[in-house]
Amino acid sequence: MASSIEYIDFVCSQLDGVGVIRTRRMFGDWCIYVDEKAVMLVCDEICYVKKHAAIDTMMATAECGYPYDGAKEHYILDIEHADKARAVIKTLVEVLPYPKKKTKQHIRKNVKSVLNP
After folding, report:
1. How far is residue 2's CA from residue 17's CA, in Å, rounded to a whole number?
2. Closest CA to 24 of 49, 41, 45
3. Which tens digit of pLDDT belongs to each residue from 55-83?
């Protein structure tokens, strides 16, 4: 069961004040970005955050799970508790790197390798 748009809106409202929030459909569900950093996956109306040393103590009692087949284990974030959720996300925004930009040259190499094996 995919997450509803109403649930995604609720998740975003719970994170109000942590930064610029953007959503994107991925893996058949959703990825939540804050300040252009992917900080959360929302799959089947469950919020998952990457296991990271910076939030280990904050998430010590949290359940863990897999957002999709083949994924690494993630913490399950209780989005109902907005203050704690915002604290976790703010910490992740501080420590997670920005996604790497793909260059046009990189894209051309991939196209060439597909066309000329």
Report:
1. 26
2. 41
3. 999 999 999 999 988 899 999 999 999 99
